[in-house]
Amino acid sequence: MKGKVVVITGATSGIGEVAAVQLAAMGGRLVLVARDRARGQATLARLRDAGPDASHTAYYADLSRVAEMKRVAAEIAAAEPRIDVLINNAGALFGSRQVTPDGLEFTFATNHVAYFVLTHGLRDRLAATAGARVVNTSSDAHKGNRLDFNDLQSASGYSGFKVYGRSKLANILYTRELARRLAGTGVTANCLHPGFVDTRFGDHSGGFLAVAVKAAKTFAISPEKGAKTIVYLASSDDVVKVTGKYFYKCREAVPTPEAQDDDAARRLWQETEKLTGIKFAPVAATAETRG
Ligand SMILES: NC(=O)c1ccc[n+]([C@@H]2O[C@H](COP(=O)([O-])OP(=O)(O)OC[C@H]3O[C@@H](n4cnc5c(N)ncnc54)[C@H](OP(=O)(O)O)[C@@H]3O)[C@@H](O)[C@H]2O)c1
To answer: Active site residue: 164, 174, 232, 246, which one?
Structure first.
């Protein structure tokens, strides 16, 4: 990873923070996207300890707000001529339905729309970098779910875990469609399940859900174990040419049939374009990436 630029969200906690520290220790230069300055500075201090030779940086944005996602992507794109790895990892679980000022349900906004908008904003920098990779944190929680295109904002019958599961299904469908659209540019896109990990995940979900997740964490693996597949997809030579796949424990895994539905992937993409006002134009490969 020496000299490589890694943009990562959700690195102020949990598996994202462990992955960022490990990638910094491997020589990467980390660019964080965080929402809280104190937490961002604390992670930066850990990155400087792990990888003192690189000047790691942090940008601040609330990834549930479309304008903030667009702004932070534009700031990073202006500062970084090349990006080797983009890790979309920030995510959350909400016990009760809440709607952002953009009119998006919070889980959908944070866990899916942020991945789409940030990747779109950085696509030219990725395409300008030979062997660039997008790594999206998903989850086995996608199992048993299908998207409801008549109710993507979960206005009816909200259940926190079901809506979370759908957002993680969206991560897999998004990764497949992104890989398809990036074909020929040299940029790969893969996603992963980290396992059930003892992080801050679920702590602020509220009500019964927070209690249930806390109790279940007795059986969870460590953030160090949970981060392994992120680090693998971001750095391993094994996956240089692999794209559009779902991984667990550093191996390709098979997601549910609903997560392999390319019509649903295309439709989700189109709906997300409408919701964000973004038109994802074809990305041109540069001489470097073609070479
Ligand atoms: N833990 C598990 O068992 C598990 C299993 C499968 C998948 N995952 C996935 O793994 C990813 C990371 O979760 P984790 O377990 O490491 O949880 P975590 O410890 O709660 O970390 C979540 C990270 O996302 C950031 N974040 C959340 N909402 C944000 C927002 N609106 N704007 C900017 N940043 C935001 C958090 O920032 P703050 O520090 O400011 O809160 C934090 O850095 C998520 O996508 C989650 O769905 C987790």
So the answer is: 164
Q: How far is the CA of 75 from the centre of ligand 1 (A)?
A: 22
Least Cα distance to 131 among 234, 32, 54 occurs for: 234
**CA 21 – ligand 1 centroid, Å:** 16
Ligand 1 atom with least separation from CA of 137: 45
Torsional sign, CA 248, 252, 254, 255: positive
197 secondary structure, DSSP code: B
pTM above 0.70, yes or no: yes
137 burial via Cβ count (<10 Å: 0-12, 13-18, 19+): buried
Compute the distance from residue 10 Cα to the ligand 1 centre, in Å.
Answer: 5
Please say whether the beta carbons of 92 and 213 come within 8 A. Answer: no
| Residue 246 falls in the annotated catalytic set | no
The number of residues in the chain equals 291
User: Do the beta carbons of residue 91 and residue 137 sit within 8 Å?
Assistant: yes
The yes-or-no verdict on residue 286 having pLDDT over 90 is no
Distance of alpha carbon 142 from alpha carbon 162, whole angstroms: 9
Atom 23 (ligand 1): residue with closest C-alpha?
10
- pLDDT tens-digit profile of 205-222? 887 888 888 888 889 999
CB 160 within 8 A of CB 95: yes
The residue written with tokens 């006002």 in the block is 277
Give the 3-state secondary structure of 63-106. Answer: CCCHHHHHHHHHHHHHHCCCCCEEEECCCCCCCCCCECCCCCEH
In the block, residue with structure tokens 């942020």? 114
How far is the C-alpha of 106 from the C-alpha of 94, rounded, in Å? 8
Place of tokens 């992670």: 43
Residues within a 6 A CB radius of ligand 1: 10, 12-16, 35-36, 39, 62-64, 89-92, 110, 137, 139, 193-194, 196-197, 199-201
